[in-house]
Amino acid sequence: MNVRHALPVLLLLGSIGLCPLLSSSEEPLKSKSLPPIPLSVEEIHAWIDRSHPLLRGAGTEKTMARGKMLKALGAFEPILINDTELERFISTSNPGKGTQTVGFNDTLIEARHPWGFRYSAGVREAIGTAKIPDLSFGGGNNQVILGGFIPLLRGLMVNPENAELQRSELANPKAEVQISQTRQDLFLAAATQFWDWVTAVKLAEVQRRAVGVAEDRYRQVEGRAKAGAVAPLDVVEANQEVQRRREVAIAVQRLVEQEQLKLSMFLWENNAPVSPHLDRAPNFPSAMLLPAPDTIQAHKLQAKVDRPEVKEIGIEAKLNNIDLELAKNNLLPSLDAEAAPARAPEKFVLGLGYRFGLELKIPILQRKSRGEVLEAQGKADRFVFIQQFREQQVLIDVDNAISALERAKERVAAAAESLRLAKTLEEGERFRFSLGATSILFVNLRERNSVDSESQVIRAKADYQKAQALYQWAIGAWARTTPFVTPVTYRARD
After folding, report:
1. Taking a C-beta distance cutoff of 8 angstroms, is the pair 86, 112 a contact?
2. Distance between CA atoms of 113 and 255, rounded to whole angstroms?
3. Beta bridge pairs of residue 101
4. In a 3-state reduction of DSSP, which class is residue 100?
5. pTM to 2 decimals?
6. How far is Cα 42 from Cα 285, in angstroms, rounded to an integer?
7. Which of 33, 195, 257, 388 has the greatest CB tally within 10 Å of its CB?
8. How far apart are CA 346 and CA 350, in angstroms?
9. Which residues share a beta bridge with 163?
């Protein structure tokens, strides 16, 4: 039998127990445990994108923008009109006919254009014995009716309805900017809070180790005191150090709980905050790289485009330009041309089925319109200065983040060296204590110094990571990135 053909058969037999593939001595592999993977800033941000109420609330701005667009378009939607008018009169041409009742029933569609045009079209049906002389059909009982209104100066292309439509078109970009701003701020706050939580967890671990060291020494000193090797006062000193370190550990544990609760406000599940597990606190990344000068310069140029604050002022300036154009248009005289079917039954009966008109209005002082122009021009000038300020603020934010990165990196190096020296002194003091050349007080002092130095290393590393987050915020990186996918929280043990 061919091996390629035999393999599926063997697998099938093995699966039904006719051909055991494992010896009786072999046990099934035990399922591997699935410990939680370390929590990361990216996962926190994924939670925010997925379920944070403030970001979801900001998303309603897009719904409101669509509502504004529909509201603005409502001014230009077609209207179905049905109008009936009747009149009774005596015909002067034939008084013998006596009193007659004549009228019409109009059925038409009326609409308007954003440029200010209004137009209508429909059918007029005669009521009574009179016939329609103008443009009639159906034996003189029906007439095609057309109408139009055209502004020749004021209101032509620039009018309140068209201005509102233009504003509504900017509502969605404005909503996008507001969402981006909310996302940026939430991401920065979450990253900062995340590293504050990690710092608290790491400080608690340091204090727990310090308490364990003090407790071990207390037991050793207590045993040596019973043997008469050390003075009873050293036991008191060792015990006091244990209590001191426990008090510090309790305070740090309170800090952990506080930072954990704060971090939970960025982790929402089923419309409620979720506290992260302490065993998911990660170690600080070892790499501490600074962006190159060319990269920083490119990021600055891009940030002046991507930062929501800069985009926002640009949209506000466009909105003000709409108001300015409308105010300038209101300074023009009003010259309107109109053509419409006659609205009185006696008009079309006598053969005058249409009316035409041309109306001119010239305001004298124009104080209202001139005031609106001045106000809009003042706002436009102000937006120019605000734009300049915000662009410079973006550059300052980037420089500030770079400064924070550089100083934090230097602090990490200095704190690490201080910790190395503190550990050396601590080991030396312990050795001297074992020889009886020093007291337990100096050992405690050396250990405290080591704990303080290690705590400074932790804080410096956390500040570097927070500076990294500040840099991402400053260059607007989170304003242009796509939302994260749903985070994965577990992995198999290696």
Report:
1. no
2. 64
3. 88
4. strand
5. 0.80
6. 14
7. 195
8. 6
9. none
- Sole residue written with tokens 């994965």: 488
d(CA 331, CA 373): 9
Q: Based on the number of CB atoms within 10 Å of its own CB, is 253 exposed (0-12), middle (13-18) or buried (19 or more)?
A: middle
Looking at domain 41-67+170-321+376-480, its CATH superfamily turns out to be Outer membrane efflux proteins (OEP) (1.20.1600.10)
Cβ 161 vs Cβ 51: under 8 Å: no
Phi and psi (nearest 5°) for 294? -65, -40
Distance CA 460, CA 193 (A): 15
Domain with CATH 1.20.1600.10 in the chain: 41-67+170-321+376-480
- Backbone angles phi and psi of 104, in degrees to 5: -155, 160
- Start-to-end CA distance of the chain, whole Å, equals 40
In degrees, rounded to 5, the angle at the alpha carbon of residue 37 between the alpha carbons of residues 36 and 38 is 120
Task: Count the neighbouring beta carbons within 10 Å of the beta carbon of residue 391.
Answer: 18
Measure CA 22 to chain center: 57
Q: Mind listing the pLDDT tens digit for each residue in 414-447?
A: 999 999 999 999 999 999 988 888 888 999 999 9
Measured CA angle at 187 (ends 184, 188), to 5 deg: 85
CB 397 within 8 A of CB 389: no
Longest dimension (CA), the chain: 147
> Smallest Cα–Cα separation from 159: which of 216, 117, 213?
117
d(CA 337, CA 355): 11
- Cβ neighbors of 441 (< 8 A, separation 6 or more) are 237
Which stretches of 343-482 are DSSP H helices? 345-349, 367-434, 440-474, 477-480
- The residues pairing with 85 across neighbouring beta strands, listed in sequence order, are 104
Q: Is 434 helix (H, G, I), strand (E, B) or coil?
A: helix
Q: What is the pLDDT of residues 23-70, one digit of tens each?
A: 333 334 333 556 678 999 999 999 999 999 999 888 888 889 999 999
- Distance, in Å, from the CA atom of 178 to the CA atom of 55, rounded to the nearest integer, reads 10
Q: Closest Cα to residue 49, out of 280, 262, 268, 309?
A: 268
H/E run at residue 249: helix 232-264
What three-state secondary structure class fits 256? helix
Residue 73 has pLDDT above 80, yes or no: yes
Using alpha carbons, select from 324, 67, 326, 302 the residue that is nearest to residue 175: 67
Please tell me the distance from the alpha carbon of residue 465 to that of residue 293, in angstroms, as a whole number: 20
Q: What are phi and psi of 335, to 5 degrees?
A: -130, 110
